[in-house]
Design a protein that fits this description.
Elements (H helix, E strand, L loop, with lengths): L1 H9 L14 E7 L17 H8 L2 E3 L2 E2 L5 H10 L3 H4 L17 H7 L3 E5 L17 E2 L15 E7 L31 H30 L6 E7 L14 H4 L3 E4 L16 E3 L3 E2 L3 H9 L24 E5 L9 E5 L3 E6 L17 H11 L5 H4 L8 E5 L17 H17 L8 H8 L4 H5 L6 H13 L6 H11 L14 H18 L5 H13 L6 H14 L2 H15 L6 H13 L1 H8 L20 H13 L1
Parallel strand pairs: 1-6, 1-7, 2-9, 3-10, 4-5, 4-6
Antiparallel strand pairs: 2-8, 7-8, 11-12, 12-13, 13-14
Length: about 650
């Protein structure tokens, strides 16, 4: 607080006194679904003259992560200055309640006297958030030119959607970039369909570049270039499959240019140099706090990001963090970490393939041909990897392996780096109160009407125990024996907050205990001694009637695979019940349909039931992402025909 007081004296908050302090305008130019495939980042296939010119007079950041590899969670992180995992908003198109009194960065800027506009995408994972409560104007007409007083400082966003995933596959489109020269990554098949998609992607980046150039020329025409700090960045990695939706570097690294005019060079980062390259690690969680710092306001206590310029310039980060939750209709949980060179990923659902059938993603020709070639056995080992199960952890060296295809996690030469990054990631999950350690369904069930963040921030919430449990459960994929079973069985009865003697076990710990047993059975059932195998199945049977639907689901999935005939029948019936629970259980229905989708014929045979009567949009479906049950029903129906 002492530091802020000193800085505030240098750059006071907005006042409507006779001679208010001069403060910078702030302009954010953002483009959708693109990584650093720009000329200024050394991409010779790219044609981006306007952004290249901006880079020549700006600071270019070598490593900027979007924290999430898909729009909604990434934008949730931006607007809040908090990791979406700390809010329960890491799932695609979800709706979580904001904690009382929590401030978003435009609110802070508006209170400081800024005119704040957004043109025009929002896509925040917050329930009931009204744009008029956040922005002065959020629309396709939003512009700094509409501010009531031309002397009022402005904060303006212009978001270019032309590079979005949907635009790299729409037709008709006459290619400008030569597909024969397209840089196809080693993990994708080098076939005409893939080359065309990459060429069209680069075409869209050229169109986006022209839009950014137009906005910058408007700034010049209005005589505001010398008084405006400009950010340009992409909103996550490219819209191509295995970039978008995946927290590899390919899904998280975005281009980021920061231009500070000479009139405000005192606010620039210490390493600022026009045309220069910054090695400082920055990410989306830092963007809002940085804007607040540049405006001379105070960063709210709830924000987790660190300003990287302005009076409140903070300490440079050692690591950046990424996350993947539910992606549209498909469930997953991945966390990642980078030190700028090495990338570490932790998979909590290693038994599920990297790429699952997401209807929107499969509209891209690359995705379809890639999967068809896998089914026909036409891919090499690197290309086939994404359609198969995962290791519980991965480590990649971007210096020698920019495509992130050589997993170094089991290489003894890199054991020290593996331990460093995995330890940093685990501690980050604890420190930031990563509520993703609860399933989405369980998070909503347990938080009730209060904000998930409020629940997770309580001292009574067993965050340390839950992170440990999730970590240990995923370890069962690699090694499972009698001691591992004992550790997982202990979790299923561990009380809330780890308090021995409590009557109620913690549902989150119970889930991870059963999940770990299931992972262990999937990877080791063929080599387990019979007493251990039987004990594992008995433990799952004991919790098929648990209070938590998420616990019942994981037990049903495991028993359907490893139980006896009676247990398989009971498991199949439980799965069908979970699809049609009362209206507050929309998210458990999504989870149950994910399991049924992989076991459709068996479930139908054992229950004699079908999904024909399940409504595509059940009562109680949220306003955002309310069509995912319908998408899954269509997917299951198509495969069953």
């Amino acid at each position: 607080m002492m530091l802020f007081s000193c800085c505030a004296a240098l750059l006071p908050l907005h006042s409507f006194a006779a001679d208010p302090p001069v403060r910078p305008n702030i302009l954010w130019l953002t483009s959708e679904d693109n990584g650093p495939q720009l000329g200024c980042y050394g991409d010779e296939y790219a044609d981006t003259p306007n952004l290249d010119a901006l880079a020549e007079r700006s600071l270019r950041y070598r490593m900027c992560w979007s924290n999430a590899p898909v729009c909604a969670p990434a934008r949730t992180t931006l607007i809040s200055g908090m990791y979406a995992t700390s809010l329960g908003g890491e799932n695609m198109r979800s709706a979580v309640t904001l904690p009382p009194g929590m401030e978003l960065y435009p609110n802070v800027l508006r209170k400081a006297g800024y005119y704040c506009t957004n043109n025009s995408k929002t896509d925040y994972n917050f329930e009931g958030l009204k744009t008029k409560d956040v922005w002065d104007d959020s629309s396709k007409q939003a512009h700094w030119r509409n501010r009531p007083d031309s002397k009022q400082p402005f904060f303006a966003i212009f978001n270019y959607t032309i590079s979005h995933e949907s635009k790299i596959r729409n037709k008709p489109h006459t290619l400008v970039h030569d597909p024969a020269k397209a840089p196809v990554p080693s993990y994708q098949p080098d076939v005409p369909e893939v080359r065309r998609d990459w060429a069209q992607y680069y075409d869209r980046l050229t169109e986006m570049d022209a839009m950014a150039g137009k906005t910058l020329r408007q700034l010049e025409a209005d005589g505001l270039a010398d008084s405006t700090i400009v950010f340009y960045y992409g909103d996550h990695g490219s819209g191509m499959p295995r970039s978008k939706r995946w927290p590899f570097n390919s899904g998280l690294q975005v281009p980021f240019l920061l231009h500070v005019p000479d009139s405000f060079k005192s606010l620039a980062p210490s390493d600022y140099l026009p045309g220069g390259l910054s090695e400082r690690l920055v990410s989306f969680v830092d963007m809002g706090p940085t804007a607040i710092s540049l405006a001379g306001a105070e960063v709210p206590a709830n924000m987790q990001g660190t300003p990287f310029c302005g009076p409140l310039d903070g300490e440079a980060k050692e690591y950046l963090f990424g996350y993947r939750g539910r992606m549209d209709e498909r469930l997953d949980m991945v966390r990642s970490c980078t030190d700028g060179r090495f990338v570490y990923l932790r998979h909590f659902y290693p038994d599920r393939p990297y790429l699952k059938h997401i209807s929107f993603m499969f509209e891209t020709p690359t995705t379809r041909i890639w999967k068809e070639m896998f089914d026909e056995g036409l891919l090499n080992e690197i290309q086939a990897k994404v359609w198969q199960t995962k290791p519980e952890e991965e480590l990649f060296d971007l210096q020698s392996d920019p495509d992130e295809v050589v997993n170094l996690a089991t290489d003894p030469k890199h054991s020290e780096k593996l331990s460093e990054l995995s330890g940093a990631l685990k501690q980050w999950m604890i420190d930031t109160r990563d509520i993703g350690v609860l399933t989405e369904a369980e998070m909503h069930r347990r938080s009730g009407k209060q904000a998930p963040r409020t629940m997770a921030a309580m001292d009574s919430f067993p965050m340390n125990e839950l992170v440990d449990a999730a970590w240990n459960a995923s370890d069962c994929w690699r090694a499972f024996d009698e001691p591992a079973l004992a550790k997982m069985s202990a979790l299923t009865g561990q009380a809330v907050g780890g308090q021995a003697g409590s009557k109620q076990p913690d549902s989150g710990l119970q889930f991870w205990g059963c999940r770990g047993i299931h992972l262990g059975l999937q990877s080791h059932a063929g080599v387990l001694e019979e007493p251990v195998l039987n004990a594992a199945i008995a433990e799952l049977q004991d919790h098929l009637g648990a209070e938590s639907p998420s616990v019942r689901l994981v037990c049903a999935e495991a028993l359907l695979q490893f139980g006896n005939a009676d247990q398989q029948t009971a498991a199949a019936k439980e799965l069908m019940r979970l699809v049609q629970l009362p209206e507050d259980a929309y998210y458990i229905a999504i989870a149950a349909l994910n399991v049924i989708d992989q076991n459709d014929s068996q479930v139908r045979l054992l229950t004699g039931q079908s999904l024909a009567d399940v409504p595509k949009k059940p009562a109680g479906a949220p306003s955002r992402g309310g069509d995912y049950v319908g998408r899954l029903l269509e997917s299951i129906g198509e495969r069953s025909e």
